[in-house]
Write a sequence for this structure.
């Protein structure tokens, strides 16, 4: 047992929820951001401006999402170079075979392939052949075995969420908005989750509401501590910056979560806000304004997933624009600080609790 433990330590293999559920998933989100998300933004710019180079570059960037996620996961797992580079093929195969559930397939397959690759790395005189061969063969074979079922399961779960939101917009508006908003602030990827489940339509609108509630909410309610730098970094960056403070005092999360539970059903029941752009935008909130931009592009040019669900291009009305602005910006900026003030009076939140280090 001690020999096995020593071997694992020597290979830097740590089987833990933190390593796989936080480090790997958080890194995967960055890989997804640097490929599919940036590609989506560029393609949107191309379609709206008519500048072909944006569309071309965006297409190439989006096509590399599988390799980008796998390499990011390998980096988080501290893989040696030959293992890390071999994950390029593993990520491509997993994402392609996983379909809509590609990111989930990449997560599971890349973790296993990376750890197996680390086991054999530098154990033979012909490491330059053995390590890539083992890593790629194990990864691609595993992708062929489990990626299609993962994709099918993700499709089904996404379909259930979307159908339930249409049938019960009030309750599902609360649930989806709160859950995705929480995922966005945690060191995991709400964008990858929404992309995996093809979360578009009314459910996508609820997801956007929850993400914006956390990002704009934290940015505004912590303004007294963090001023303009905090407003921008959280409002246009990520509310994940507050994770350290949340660990120290979980009560600071109450205003943002309650706000998401209010704005979610407002989005689904009052404004019928739908996200019919690329599903990844449903989990982005105001990060780079991707959530609102995704809603806007969905009005003008629905994604293939949204079209398959029955969406159609529309000319947005005043109510559409009012819903987008209120749900994404105004309501979180008003409701969250009000709830935060109440929490401060109750002593649940104290001065300095929201200060970013």
């Amino acid at each position: 047992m001690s020999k096995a433990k020593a071997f694992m330590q020597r290979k830097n293999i740590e089987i833990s929820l933190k390593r796989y559920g936080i480090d790997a998933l958080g890194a995967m989100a960055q890989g997804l951001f640097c490929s599919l998300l940036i590609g989506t933004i560029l393609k949107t710019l191309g379609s709206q401006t008519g500048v072909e180079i944006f569309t071309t570059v965006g297409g190439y960037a989006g096509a590399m999402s599988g390799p980008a996620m796998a390499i990011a996961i390998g980096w988080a797992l501290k893989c040696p170079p030959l293992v890390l580079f071999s994950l390029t093929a593993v990520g491509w195969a997993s994402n392609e075979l996983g379909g809509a559930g590609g990111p989930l397939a990449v997560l599971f397959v890349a973790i296993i392939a990376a750890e197996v690759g680390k086991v054999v790395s530098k154990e033979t005189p012909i490491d330059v052949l053995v390590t890539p061969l083992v890593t790629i063969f194990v990864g691609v074979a595993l992708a062929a075995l489990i990626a299609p079922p993962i994709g099918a399961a993700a499709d089904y779960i996404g379909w259930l969420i979307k159908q339930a939101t249409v049938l019960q917009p009030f309750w599902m508006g609360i649930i989806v908005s709160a859950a995705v908003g929480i995922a966005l602030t945690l060191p995991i990827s709400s964008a990858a989750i929404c992309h995996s489940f093809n979360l578009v339509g009314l459910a996508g609108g609820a997801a956007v509401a929850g993400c914006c509630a956390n990002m704009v909410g934290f940015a505004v309610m912590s303004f007294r501590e963090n001023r303009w730098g905090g407003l921008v970094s959280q409002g246009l960056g990520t509310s994940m910056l507050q994770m350290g403070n949340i660990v120290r005092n979980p009560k600071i999360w109450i205003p943002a979560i309650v706000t998401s539970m209010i704005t979610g059903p407002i989005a689904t029941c009052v404004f019928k806000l739908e996200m019919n752009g690329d599903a990844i935008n449903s989990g982005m909130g105001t990060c780079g304004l991707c959530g609102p931009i995704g809603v806007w592009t969905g009005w003008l040019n629905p994604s293939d997933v949204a079209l398959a669900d029955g969406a159609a291009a529309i000319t947005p009305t005043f109510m559409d624009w009012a819903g987008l602005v209120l749900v994404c910006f105004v309501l979180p900026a008003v409701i969250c600080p009000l709830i935060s003030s109440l929490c401060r009076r109750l002593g649940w939140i104290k001065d300095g609790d929201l200060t970013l280090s």
The CA atoms of residues 180 and 207 lie 6 Å apart. The chain has two domains: 8-155, 168-345. The radius of gyration is 21 Å. The chain has 16 helices and no strands.
